[in-house]
Task: structure prediction
Amino acid sequence: MSYVITDACIDYTDKSCIEECPVDCIYEGSRKLYIHPAECIDCGACEPVCPVEAIVEARDADDEQEKFVTGDSRFFLEPLPGRDASLGKPGGSKAVGAIGVDIELVAEWPRS
Ligand code: F3S
Ligand code: F3S
Result:
């Protein structure tokens, strides 16, 4: 199991987590960031630096957070809006840059 970024990140996107990740597996959507579940090495370095406590271990996700466990996977496994192919395993977010789109769950998340 990996770590996962939950709803508290939406429209906040502090990005401190990116600087902490030793394997560069945190990718930028539009309104939220996403942890690649297969590239994450479960080191836990990102979790304490998020000012809104958006990052949790997937196995500790509560019922509300569980949809983001699935969602972070779908961000990589399914073609995102406007793309023909899935991101798959890019091997590092710096190489691909900001993706700029979100999964439907996040794109349709109510704005506060
Ligand atoms: Fe989001 Fe927190 Fe990272 S707000 S961008 S998960 S530091
Ligand atoms: Fe990266 Fe470690 Fe978090 S691998 S996504 S900093 S748990």
